[in-house]
Design goal:
Layout lengths: L3 E9 L5 H14 L3 E7 L2 E8 L1 H12 L8 E7 L7 E5 L13 H4 L2 E3 L1 H8 L4 E5 L3 H4 L2 E3 L13 H7 L6 H4 L2 E5 L4 H12 L5 E4 L2 H8 L7 E3 L1 E2 L6 E2 L9 E2 L6 E2 L24 H19 L9 H31 L1
Parallel strand pairs: 2-5, 6-10, 7-9, 9-10
Antiparallel strand pairs: 1-3, 1-4, 2-3, 8-11, 12-13, 14-15
Length: 339
């Protein structure tokens, strides 16, 4: 039986003293053996943590002891092994980065729609359904008929909205817009952004995909595929059971079983998504890391994962890929205007 409780949580609420909250929260998590990542910013709190049931309950109770977080909600699932290597309580400018100032999800978010009523909404022909997650997340699963903006990061979403807000754009062709994301946090910010741009009928899935998969039985579901999650489970399906996907340790992209049969796949070193993106020096480090992981496994020990500098290099490579894609799109727009 699974022994590790995983809790995904967030709340948009003004926390002017968020810096002062970091150390006490870190201490409470450590004292109860809880690992994962929590982000703190002036606009609220966001993160996923894992530990024993008693430990998670203690951390949640501590967070809710702050009157501003008293109504904090969370979603639970179980894991057979600890899905995180360490604990991080980080200070950020935003708890989910869009890069647009003065967006207030606490007061401007769209209308919540419960999982039980979601199917009816997205089956309405007057509704355009938008998946606000990043492209690599959408590729492994989404709702039937949903639009994929094909963004590499959430910061690209406002640009997509602007492009689709013309008279012939996707967001103007129908009267209503319904948005969804993993746990609900990106939806709150994206619907708030749409409302700030003049859209009136904007809806989002309450509790996100995770709540839907937990609540709606498979035989009634309009979800296709699996849902990417940001921990060592990689993906989950209905009932929040662990999925089939694994993570490429070089680029952090989800890998389907067939990806591992590719000639470009080397365990811990490369995959079809990133086989041509790393330097020989990086590849050498990845191979040494994989060797150490296998040695630790033979000793029945747990390897703590990629060194920090390698994780940063992988993230930087993904950011550079996103930047190049954005530049390419801008060049296409300029070319069309000139034509």
């Amino acid at each position: 039986m699974s022994q590790i409780l995983v809790a995904a949580l967030y709340k948009f609420v003004r926390l002017d003293d968020f810096q002062a909250l970091q150390a006490p929260i870190q201490q409470v998590c450590e004292s109860h053996g809880v690992m994962g990542t929590l982000l703190l910013a002036k606009e609220g709190i966001n993160g996923t943590i894992a530990g024993s049931a008693a430990g998670i309950r203690a951390v949640l109770d501590y967070l809710r002891s702050d009157a501003r977080l008293a109504t904090l909600t969370h979603k639970e699932s179980w894991a057979d092994t600890m899905p995180f290597y360490r604990l991080k309580v980080k200070l950020k400018r935003e708890i989910v980065t869009m890069g647009v100032p003065d967006i207030d999800p606490e007061t401007m978010a769209g209308q919540y729609v419960t999982p039980e009523k979601w199917n009816d909404l997205i089956s309405d022909p007057e509704v355009v359904v938008v998946d606000v997650r990043n492209d690599y997340e959408v590729t492994i699963g989404s709702f039937q008929g949903a639009v994929n903006p094909k963004t590499e990061s959430f910061t690209e979403f406002p640009e997509w909205v602007q492009a689709q807000s013309s008279d012939t754009g996707l967001l103007r062709k129908k009267k209503k817009v319904a948005m969804f994301c993993t746990g609900g946090i990106r939806c709150e910010k994206s619907t708030a952004y749409l409302r700030s741009q003049g859209f009136d009928e904007v809806y989002h899935l309450e509790g996100g995909i995770l709540k839907y998969l937990e609540t709606v039985p498979p035989e009634k579901s309009l979800w296709k595929g699996e849902c990417f999650v940001f921990d060592e489970r990689v993906s989950v399906g209905h009932g929040l059971t662990p999925g089939e996907y694994e993570l490429c340790r070089a680029c952090r992209q989800p890998l389907a079983p067939e990806d591992k049969t590719s000639v470009y796949f080397e365990l811990g070193v490369s995959c079809p998504h990133c086989h041509d993106q790393h330097t020989p020096e990086q590849i050498g480090r990845f191979r040494e890391r994989q060797k150490q992981i296998e040695l630790a496994r033979k000793r029945r020990e747990r390897h703590i994962g990629a060194p920090i500098e390698e994780q940063k290099a992988a993230k930087q490579a993904m950011k550079e890929k996103a930047r190049q894609a954005a530049l390419a799109r801008q060049a296409q727009v300029v070319t069309k205007k000139q034509a």
